Amino acid sequence: MQPYFFWMKLHRNLVFAVIDALNLIFTEGQYADKVVEKILKRDKRWGSRDRGFIAETTYEMVRYKRLYAKISEVNEPYSRSNLFRMWAVWAVLKGIQLPDWKQIAPTPERRIKGRFDEFSKIRKYRESIPDWLDALGEGALGERLWTKEIAALNQQAEVVLRVNTLKTTKDKLQKELMDGGVLTDPLKGYPLALKLRERSNVFSSDSFKNGWFEVQDASSQLVGDFLDVKPGMRVVDACAGAGGKTLHLAALMENKGQLIALDIYANKLKELKRRARRNSAHNIEPRIIESTKVIKKLHNSADRVLIDAPCTGLGVLRRNPDAKWKLQPEFLEKITKTQKEILFGYSKMVKPGGKLAYITCSILPVENEKQVQGFLESEEGKNFALVDEKHIYASKSGFDGFYMALMVKK
User: Fold this and answer.
1) 4-128 fold
2) CB-neighbour burial class of residue 175 (10 A; exposed 0-12, middle 13-18, buried 19+)
3) pLDDT by residue (tens digit) across 45-94?
4) What is the tens place of the pLDDT at every residue in 26-55?
5) Which of 20, 86, 105, 279 has the fewest beta carbons under 10 Å from its own?
6) What's the DSSP call for residue 307?
7) For the structural domain made of 220-409, what CATH number should be given?
């Protein structure tokens, strides 16, 4: 599908909306997804193409911030005129004729293209990443894999749905969506996945409101089957958040058994309750972790424990491109310490013969196999054995980067 800007006239209010969004993201440090959501509500007259232009352009400029800033010779903190210069670079590289507006100074198109050719030969500019992150990625994965992976993580994420089998089947959902003008394709190797052929607002569809599906990346959908849950089990989702994976587990358990959803944030569990009602997932029991007592009460009692650990999120840069600019080297040190504490503490909930899955949406070994290795060699992990391990790379799968390790308690 060709991007919106190839077949639409540039309107001043749309470009200004992009500049406003970039100002909030780059200068005020706000999250890109929240900013785009807010900006799109600004004018009710905007149609789907207008909204598409704003969202796609904003995300692409966030994705390639360093490259566009380098070409346009501007430095942070960016003024509005800096942001217009960066936008003009984006437009020239897209082959868009620049409008005759006073905000856009005379733009040397040949110089822009020449500088693009020059900087595109250097990975940290081409893929638009901070120096420290580029060095870290290459050191962790090796030059060849890192070069492929960071390029794949700079692609726009496709929209993938997970069929809610508590309510419908894949065939019924596909037909229902098609009747509403939304075309999808099944994905081989992902039993409950349907991929949208074109981006559209599926949240306004009746099938979403009726709980027939959730939006969930294909890599994330692998987690439920990996944990090997069965109806009637006691399962603990230890870092449930708003419950994307919890809802999948409830469906795989056919609403039978007990599914305890733990999190330290009450507002996320409140959102999970709302989603569970829509999904008709009745066996979910949200519990907020207010003290260590919550975990102690569950020691040696769970058939399955899922630890979807907090992480750098490097595997999901396709959908959160601003994370590249928010991440700092010291955060990695902090988060690996947290991961270790969670793995060592929450693993005690697994009963003998039960299984534990440790998952991250990162591609860094220090957050993944090195954490599992350290756990298995420790006093807390001596009764566990590694059963299965998967590294999922965006450059190979076409979906989010993930790590999954399954351990059994002897």
Assistant:
1) N-utilizing Substance Protein B Homolog; Chain A (1.10.940)
2) middle
3) 999 889 999 999 999 999 999 999 999 999 999 999 999 999 999 999 99
4) 999 999 999 999 999 999 999 988 999 999
5) 105
6) E
7) 3.40.50.150
- Burial bucket for residue 217 (CB in 10 Å: 0-12, 13-18, 19+): buried
CA distances from 180 to 98, 165, 353 (A): 37, 20, 47
- Where do the CATH 3.40.50.150 domains begin and end in the chain? 220-409
Give the span between the Cα atoms of 398 and 393, in whole angstroms.
8
Contact 246, 284 (CB under 8 A): yes
Residue 345 falls in which region: left (phi positive, over 0), alpha (psi -120 to 50) or beta? alpha
Q: Cα(59)–Cα(264) distance, rounded to whole angstroms?
A: 30
Q: How many CB atoms lie within 10 A of CB 287?
A: 16
* Annotation marks residue 361 as catalytic: yes
- Catalytic-labelled residue, pool 17, 227, 252, 361: 361
Looking only at the bridges linking them, the beta strands covering 213-215 and 160-163 are: antiparallel
CATH class of 160-215: alpha beta
β-pairing, 234-237 with 258-263? parallel
Helix or strand or coil: residue 25? helix
CATH 1.10.940-classified regions of the chain: 4-128
Residue range(s) in the chain whose domain bears CATH number 3.30.70.1170: 160-215
How far apart, in whole angstroms, are the C-alpha atoms of residue 43 and residue 11? Answer: 13
Q: Of 69, 167, 184, 174, which is closest to residue 119 (Cα–Cα)?
A: 69
Task: Please tell me whether the peptide bond between 106 and the residue prior to it is cis, using omega within 30 degrees of 0.
Answer: no
Rounded distance, CA 54 to CA 76, Å?
Answer: 22
